From TrEMBL:
The keyword ATP-binding does not apply. This is Translational GTPase TypA. The keyword GTP-binding applies. It comes from candidate division WWE3 bacterium CG_4_10_14_0_2_um_filter_41_14. One of its GO terms (molecular function) is GTPase activity. InterPro entries: BipA_II, BipA_III, BipA_V, EFG_III/V, EFG_V-like, EFTu-like_2, P-loop_NTPase, Small_GTP-bd. GO terms for cellular component: cytosol; ribonucleoprotein complex. Residues 1-145 form the Tr-type G domain.
C-alpha cells in the first residue's frame, strides 16, 4: 500500500504488508515470512484475547529480534474487553522472555471491519491513519547504504505460472535488480540464472517492473530450479544469507490409490502416477511437507499437523483427485536413546456446564490441565497433551459439548 495517498501533497511511502497464518501447522510459512520483514503487527481479538496461535507467532517474532506493534482488533464487539486483553498480551510477552525494548510495545485499538484505528479508546472514530502513521514512525526504512550494495535476495515463497513456470517471491535485502540481469544462486554450491520477468505487488495485484531495489517484495521468473531459502546474488563471491529453518513434521499418513468397487465415481485423477505427480508439485511450494515415494503401492506423507494435511486433501479433492488415506500416525523420534513425541498446548473455550466432561475425557488422553479461567459464564481451559491424544478427539468434544 502507498501512504499517505498520492493526492495528499506529502511524500508517499510504499509499505509492504505480508500476511502469515498463525496456526502452528503452518510454522514453515510463518518462519520464512517473518524472515522477510522488519516489523510485526500482532493482531489480538478484543474479546477472546491471546490464543495459542498468538503465542506461536509472537514467540517466533521475538526469537528473530523483531519489535511487534500490538493491534487489539474487533473493539466494536459487544463483549470486547480491550484493556483487559492489553494486560494479557503484556503477560504473554513476559512469559516468552521478551527484551526490555520488545516489552515496550506500542498498542493500537482497531475495528478493521469499520476501517477504524486509534491510539486511545476515547479518541474519535475516523480511519486507519493512526495505524499507518505508527508504522511509518516505528518500522525502519531501508538505508541508503543497502541500496548501493550488490544485489542480494532470498525467496520466502514459491509460485507457479502457466507461462512463466516456477517463480520465486523474494525480499530484496540489498542492491538493485533488473529484468534480464544474470544472477548467481548460492546454496552451498553456486549456479547461474537469468531473470526473465520481474514483478512487484500493489494491493492484491502484481505489476511488471523493469527494476526493483532493496526493501521491496518482488516475484522473479527465470530460475526454474530455485528453492526457498537460497540466496540470489549479483556476484558469485557474496556470502549466502542465513538459511531458513523449517520445523519438523509431527504426523504421517499414507496416500493410496482408491481400489474400492466405487473407484472413479468422485474424481477424474485416480491413478498412482497422477497422484504422485500432483504430490511432487505440492512439494515445490509446501516446504513443511515431506513425502516418501520409495514404495510403489502408497506414498507416505508427513505434515505439521491434522490441519496441514487436511487442507492438502481438500485441495486434491477440489481439483478432481480421488484416493484413499490411512489413519494418521504420530512421528516418534529418538534422541540419546530416548523416544520423543510431539506435545501441544490446547486451549478450549466452553460453557461451565460442560467443563467436567471435557476435563475427564482429555485426562484419559494424557492431557494435563495447566490453567483454568472463567469470564461471563464461559470457561477457558488450557491443557498440555501429546499430539497422539488429540487425534480423533474433535468429534468427541462436539458430542460432549452438544455442539455449543
Amino acid at each position: 500500500v502507498f501512504f499517505p495517498p498520492a493526492n495528499s501533497g506529502q511524500a508517499v511511502t510504499k509499505i509492504n504488508i505480508v500476511d502469515t497464518p498463525g496456526h502452528a501447522d503452518f510454522s514453515s510459512e510463518v518462519e520464512r515470512i517473518l524472515r522477510s520483514i522488519d516489523c510485526v503487527l500482532l493482531l489480538v481479538d478484543a474479546q477472546e484475547g491471546p490464543m495459542p496461535q498468538t503465542k506461536f507467532v509472537l514467540k517466533k517474532s521475538l526469537q528473530l529480534g523483531l519489535n511487534p506493534i500490538v493491534v487489539i482488533n474487533k473493539i466494536d464487539k459487544p463483549a470486547a474487553r480491550p484493556l483487559e486483553v492489553q494486560e494479557m498480551v503484556y503477560e504473554l510477552f513476559l512469559d516468552l522472555g521478551s527484551t526490555d525494548k520488545q516489552l515496550d510495545f506500542p498498542v493500537i485499538f482497531a475495528a478493521a471491519k469499520s476501517g477504524v484505528a486509534k491510539i486511545n479508546l476515547t479518541d474519535e472514530d475516523k480511519d486507519l491513519t493512526p495505524l499507518l502513521d505508527l508504522i511509518l514512525k516505528k518500522v525502519p526504512s531501508i538505508s541508503p547504504e543497502a541500496i548501493i550494495q550488490p544485489f542480494a535476495a532470498q525467496p520466502f515463497n514459491l509460485a507457479y505460472d502457466n507461462y512463466l513456470g516456477r517463480c520465486a517471491i523474494c525480499r530484496v535485502y540489498s542492491g538493485t535488480v533488473k529484468c534480464g540481469q544474470n544472477v548467481f544462486v548460492i546454496n552451498g554450491s553456486i549456479r547461474t540464472g537469468k531473470i526473465t520477468k520481474l514483478f512487484t505487488f500493489q494491493g492484491l495485484a502484481r505489476k511488471e517492473v523493469p527494476e526493483s531495489q532493496a526493501g521491496d517484495i518482488v516475484m522473479i521468473a527465470g530460475i526454474p530450479d530455485i528453492e526457498i531459502g537460497e540466496t540470489i546474488a549479483e556476484k558469485n563471491d557474496q556470502p549466502a544469507l542465513p538459511a531458513i529453518k523449517i520445523d519438523e513434521p509431527t504426523i504421517s499418513l499414507n496416500f493410496l490409490v482408491n481400489n474400492s468397487p466405487f473407484a472413479g465415481r468422485e474424481g477424474k485423477f485416480v491413478t498412482g502416477r497422477q497422484i504422485k505427480e500432483r504430490l511432487k508439485k505440492e512439494l515445490e511450494v509446501n516446504v513443511g511437507l515431506k513425502i516418501d515415494f520409495s514404495d510403489s503401492t502408497f506414498y507416505n506423507v508427513c505434515g505439521r499437523g491434522e490441519l496441514h494435511v487436511a487442507i492438502l486433501l481438500e485441495n486434491l479433492r477440489r481439483e478432481g483427485y480421488e484416493l484413499q488415506v490411512s489413519q494418521p500416525q504420530v512421528i516418534i523420534k529418538e534422541e540419546n536413546g530416548k523416544k520423543l513425541e510431539p506435545f501441544e498446548e490446547v486451549t478450549i473455550d466452553l460453557s461451565e456446564a460442560y467443563q467436567g466432561a471435557v476435563i475427564e475425557k482429555i485426562s484419559k488422553r494424557k492431557g494435563q490441565l495447566m490453567d483454568l479461567k472463567t469470564h461471563n459464564g464461559q470457561t477457558r481451559l488450557i491443557f498440555e497433551m501429546p499430539t497422539r491424544g488429540l487425534l480423533g478427539y474433535r468429534n468427541e468434544f462436539v458430542v460432549d459439548t452438544r455442539g455449543e
